[in-house]
């Protein structure tokens, strides 16, 4: 198994996306000594390959000199087995020098574009699209692998086909994100998708995708279908990620995931103290995640999809619980309130909708294939490809 370490050099970011909850304009910057301490901490922490993801905020604010020193420390270390590097960035600060460095270390980059320029800039701010695509072109010209993340909101959901066709026309592989509430504030609430909207969006995009598997990749559907087939979650949202992913903030504090970075209630330890996993599991942050896990075990046993859903994302469940327990819920979107003090991911309905769609399609395909053994049924298929094509995709 690969152990995932997310490194957050800063929570600062130059963009002003309207639904963003993950940036802080006055955030401090990670010193290279934290990278050295991460390297030391990993010695003996666990005997697995380690994949490093640089995230933010905007990680490129750290600059060329930081990565020139950090990458070889993590790549050539004797304390752990490095499995690869990735980076999430808007690419505004990417230049030729950084791109060549990332190419040398095979750093895979994900960047966020929410579809055509007009839709994207309405959600992410004027000028965002052009700045990101300029950085994208620099990356591609220097041999860096770049994929996209597209966030769907209460606004952009109505432009589903236009957004899908933008990625299809340009041959851009992408992942889907739904705008959702946050523990950090309520600025995302008005942009958030309700569970029903999210589920309908997923089903509609899956139907589109089944005509174009030979042209682009939508990684979410690849994972969802694979998970349904092998009965085990393979996407972050649906995997039992506790302990297999940890995030390191600018000051060396350790968190369960990048979504918690900067929130003192979710600090598990600090790399300067070189804590063991057993020590991290004694933290209050770990106990809060265990409450989520135990709640799923106790309340989702009769769900057909629990083995490969695992209650969804713990962070989303904790957000739902926090909203319910807030002394003032006036600004909380009522679609996400929950009557329990502990909650599964409130997008449960969306997940059930897409898993049911995949299951129903797979069953129909299986029955039809058996019937065709005894008939000359040449009925045209609704889609060019099948769910089984996705389930068996390598």
Give an account of the 3D structure:
The chain is α/β, with parallel strands linked by helices and 394 residues long. The chain is built from 13 helices and nine strands. The chain has a nine-stranded mixed sheet with strand order 6-5-4-3-2-1-7-8-9. Strand 5, helix 6 and strand 6 form a beta-alpha-beta unit.
Which characteristics define this entry?
394 residues; alpha/beta; 9-stranded mixed beta sheet; 39% helix
Cα shape: globular
> Could you give a short account of the major beta sheet?
9 strands, mixed
Radius of gyration: 21 Å
Tell me the distance between the termini.
18 Å
Q: Proportion of β residues?
A: 5-15%
- Computed structural class: alpha/beta
Total beta strands: 9
- Treating each run of at least 4 consecutive H or I residues as one helix, how many helices? 13
Q: Which sequence of SSEs, written as H and E, runs from N to C?
A: EHEHEHEHHEHEHHEEEHHHHH
Fraction of helical residues: 25-40%
> Reading side by side through the largest sheet, how are the strands ordered?
6-5-4-3-2-1-7-8-9
Mean pLDDT comes to: 90
């Amino acid at each position: 198994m690969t152990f995932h370490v997310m490194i957050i050099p800063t929570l600062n970011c130059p963009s002003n996306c309207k639904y963003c909850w993950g940036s802080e304009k006055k955030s401090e910057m990670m010193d290279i000594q934290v990278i050295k301490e991460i390297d030391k901490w990993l010695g003996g922490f666990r005997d697995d390959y380690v994949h490093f993801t640089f995230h933010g905020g905007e990680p490129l604010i750290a600059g060329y000199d930081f990565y020139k020193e950090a990458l070889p420390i993590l790549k050539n270390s004797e304390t752990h087995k490095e499995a690869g590097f990735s980076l999430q960035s808007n690419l505004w600060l990417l230049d030729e020098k950084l791109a060549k460095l990332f190419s040398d270390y095979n750093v895979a980059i994900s960047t966020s574009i929410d579809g055509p320029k007009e839709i994207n800039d309405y959600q992410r701010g004027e000028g965002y699209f052009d700045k990101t695509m300029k950085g994208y072109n620099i990356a591609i010209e220097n041999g860096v692998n770049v994929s996209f993340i597209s966030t769907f909101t209460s606004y952009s959901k109505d432009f589903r086909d236009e957004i899908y066709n933008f990625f299809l026309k340009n041959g851009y592989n992408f992942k889907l994100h739904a705008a959702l509430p946050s523990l950090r504030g309520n600025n995302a609430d008005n942009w958030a998708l309700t569970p029903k909207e999210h589920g309908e969006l997923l089903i509609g995009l899956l139907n589109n995708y089944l005509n174009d598997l030979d042209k682009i990749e939508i990684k979410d559907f690849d994972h969802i279908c694979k998970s349904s087939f092998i009965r085990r979650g393979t996407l972050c949202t649906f995997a039992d990620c506790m302990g297999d992913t940890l995030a390191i903030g600018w000051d060396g504090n350790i968190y369960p995931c990048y979504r918690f970075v900067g929130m003192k209630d979710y600090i598990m330890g600090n790399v300067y103290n070189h804590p063991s996993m057993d020590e991290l599991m004694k933290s209050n942050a770990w106990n809060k995640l265990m409450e989520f896990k135990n709640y799923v075990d106790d309340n989702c046993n009769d769900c057909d999809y629990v083995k490969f859903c695992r209650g969804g994302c713990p962070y989303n469940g904790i957000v739902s619980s926090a909203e319910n327990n807030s002394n003032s819920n006036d600004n909380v979107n009522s679609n996400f309130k929950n009557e329990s003090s502990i909650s599964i991911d409130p997008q449960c309905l969306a997940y059930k909708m897409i898993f049911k769609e995949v299951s129903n399609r797979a069953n129909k395909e299986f029955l039809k294939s058996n019937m065709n053994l005894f008939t000359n049924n040449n009925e045209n298929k609704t889609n060019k490809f099948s769910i089984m094509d996705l389930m068996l995709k390598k």
